[in-house]
Design brief:
The complex is a heterodimer of chains A (about 325) and B (about 260).
Chain A (H helix, E strand, L loop, with lengths): L2 H25 L5 H26 L7 H18 L4 H23 L4 H20 L10 E2 L7 H19 L2 H11 L1 H6 L4 H24 L4 E2 L6 H14 L4 H17 L4 H18 L14 H10 L5
Antiparallel strand pairs in A: 1-2
Helix pairs in contact in A: 1-6, 2-6, 2-9, 2-10, 2-11, 3-4, 3-5, 3-9, 4-9, 6-9, 7-9, 10-11
Chain B lengths: L7 E10 L2 E11 L4 E5 L6 H8 L7 E6 L2 E2 L5 H6 L2 E3 L12 H7 L9 H6 L4 H18 L15 H14 L4 E5 L7 H18 L2 E5 L3 H7 L2 E6 L2 E6 L1 H5 L2 H7 L7
Parallel strand pairs in B: 3-8, 3-9, 6-7, 7-8
Antiparallel strand pairs in B: 1-2, 1-4, 4-5, 9-10
The chains are: A mainly alpha (about 325), B alpha/beta (about 260).
The complex binds adenosine-5'-triphosphate (ATP) and magnesium ion (MG).
Chain lengths: ~325, ~260
């Protein structure tokens, strides 16, 4: 077994250990309902942030309609379980596939646009998805979809989060991921080095959308009711903040960003105005003192002391 | 060096930008294994010709053939996959990435493992990744960049960045290498070393090279044949000695550069 594989295994074991501790605390009644909900939201938001980071951070495309794909995953998922009584896992996969297909169809024409134009287009598309759902009576229209079975629990979201993290980590550390990063760094040079830039932009967008679909399915089955209001551009903006705060192009950063933003929202749940002020201040400070985000392009596994420990465990010679 | 069919051939190629004819009725050929120079005063259209060959621009008229097949209308990445790689006059590195990653990216079109192998880290993934890293480090060594492999590309000195551009282009495993002013900004010592490197890689990799350069010591020192361009038109073609004694060329260069 080579050192990379052993390191993956180490990370997986750490991930499972964290799961064990939190699950134990939940089962032992040490975590109340409010924080249980927020732990689940953190995991959902990690999936959202990491998948958005693949598009915005790694591939350098400025997409701000991510909640739209989440909405697709949510609605496809709840229809599958509530109306068709399909198993939860099937509903999640269906949601991911539908969101992915939509991402592909939307990505193909819009990813020709650059920078601000792409941002505006994705913002608009996110809103269009929401408004279309609002006008479909079958899923409850503006009033929302009621009677969703409560299938989501900590084990599901944590498992899905781990799968997402390993998927995206492995993707970006490959020739395919390098192609995406090359587009971010210099599109003309990437093309000159043999990278089909359109293909990889669309691929990143599709993968990102599919994972947002999974996050949507998990999110929806936590509640009795979902409505289009959960997927406004403000929600999209929230995911963007997580990515920018953590660092565009860092998976660790997205995890940290999702954690911090969810935590602040929860802690200030009863003071919504204060929350917006703190957000704004935090972002302004960040742009002044650390425009690359908390982690920049760094991963926690690259920090010298942590790297040393990991290398030791995975048996890699220094 | 003459073979029956040229590796690259341009037939009556013109490129018009608005009212400006940047390249006019350009005809030329390169045989396999040749090392050809393309020179001319500033704004003569040299870089435009590279952009036409690599698919960045589509010729207004005319045809460009690689191995006898037209490549006009193909995307830059398709042309790279067919075996033409280039460097840029205004350096275009992946500046925030490590020197090593800059080179690894260019192996892209030779990677065979697919998306599933990537995500599950199985099959050909590890074997090919190890190979890419090993080959990249070898290339960096040739260009005396191996000590900087893990540094961020933008922090390299100027001359080293130019060498990295060549190393990166070679990683795409081209048949034909296009170098746009590889010695620009280099001191005479660096230029001399670069000349040796170009000679060496051509032999080692069996390359055909077309280079644009203002540094006459380099052009006259290594090119076997030279095309001289002025206002988008070829005004002379020949061996370095012929070019140095050509009155048209001397006129074109008078007051701008010396020809020795
Ligand atoms: N995309 C473009 N649009 C309009 N004009 C262009 C474009 N690209 C090049 N030109 C013009 O075409 C002419 C040839 O430019 P080119 O860059 O090919 O010159 P060059 O021979 O490479 O010069 P140098 O030695 O300065 O690099 C110049 O007049 C330039 O301004
Ligand atoms: Mg030029």
């Amino acid at each position: 077994m080579n050192s990379v594989r052993r390191r993956d295994l180490t990370m997986l074991i750490i991930g499972l250990a964290i799961f064990g501790v939190i699950q134990g605390m939940i089962s032992g009644g040490m975590i109340g309902a409010f924080w249980q909900l927020n732990i689940i939201l953190i995991c959902v938001n990690v999936i959202m942030a990491v998948s958005l980071n693949l598009i915005n951070g790694y591939t350098g495309q400025f997409s701000i309609g991510h909640a739209g794909f989440m909405a697709v995953g949510s609605y496809v998922g709840v229809v599958a379980t509530t109306n068709f009584h399909l198993p939860f896992i099937v509903a999640l996969i269906l949601g991911a596939v539908c969101a992915g297909i939509l991402g592909f169809l939307i990505g193909l024409p819009t990813l020709r646009l650059r920078g601000d134009y792409l941002a505006i287009a994705t913002l608009g598309l996110g809103e269009i998805i929401r408004i279309v759902i609002m006008n479909i009576e079958y899923v409850g229209g503006a009033a929302g979809f009621k009677g969703i079975p409560h299938l989501t629990n900590f084990a599901w979201v944590y498992g899905a989060m781990l799968i997402t993290l390993f998927f995206i980590k492995n993707f970006v550390n490959s020739s395919h991921g390098r192609a995406c990063i090359a587009i971010r760094e210099n599109e003309i040079a990437a093309e000159a080095m043999g990278v089909n830039t359109t293909k990889y932009k669309v691929m990143a967008f599709t993968i990102g959308a599919a994972f947002a679909g999974i996050a949507g399915g998990l999110f929806a089955h936590q509640f009795y009711l979902i409505s289009p209001n959960s997927f406004t551009f403000l929600a999209s903006f929230n995911y963007l903040i997580m990515v920018v705060l953590g660092g565009m192009g860092s998976i660790t950063g997205s995890i940290a960003g999702a954690f911090v933003v969810t935590f602040i929202s929860a802690a200030l749940a009863s003071f919504p105005e204060a929350r917006m002020i703190i957000y704004a201040l935090a972002l302004i400070l960040l742009m002044f003192y650390r425009p690359q985000g908390l982690f920049g392009y760094m991963e926690i596994t690259n920090f010298a002391p942590i790297k040393k420990v990991l290398d030791k465990i995975s048996g890699k010679e220094a | 060096m003459a073979e029956n069919k040229p590796l690259l051939k341009a037939e009556d190629v013109s490129e018009v930008f608005g009212g400006l004819k940047a390249v006019a009725d350009f005809n030329f050929y390169i045989n396999k294994g040749e090392l050809i120079g393309l020179i001319g005063p500033n704004g003569a259209g040299k870089t435009t010709i590279f952009n036409l060959i690599t698919g960045v621009y589509v010729p207004t008229t005319g045809d460009i053939k690689l191995d006898g097949e037209s490549i006009v209308g193909q995307k830059p990445y398709e042309i790279t996959q067919r075996g033409i790689a280039r460097t840029f006059q205004n350096i275009r590195l992946f500046s925030e990435l490590s020197v090593l990653d800059n080179v690894k990216i260019a192996y892209h079109c030779h990677v065979k493992y697919g998306l599933i192998e990537t995500v599950l880290r199985m099959g050909r993934y590890f074997g090919e990744e190890d190979e890419i890293t090993a080959e990249s480090l070898k290339l960096l060594k040739i260009f005396k960049l191996d000590e900087h492999a893990y540094e961020v590309a933008k922090n390299l000195p100027y001359g080293a960045q130019r060498r990295l551009e060549i190393a990166r282009a070679l990683a795409a495993k081209p048949k034909l290498l296009l170098l746009d002013e590889p010695a620009a900004g280099m001191n005479p010592q660096e230029t001399h070393e670069l000349m040796e490197m170009i000679r060496w890689i051509r032999k080692q990799f069996g390359l055909t090279v077309l280079l644009i350069e203002h540094d006459m010591s380099l052009v006259m020192g290594i090119c076997e044949r030279i095309y001289v361009l002025e206002y988008g038109m070829i005004i002379a073609e020949g061996t370095p000695t012929e070019i140095q004694n050509n009155p048209e060329v001397i006129r074109a260069y008078l007051g701008t550069e010396s020809m020795n």
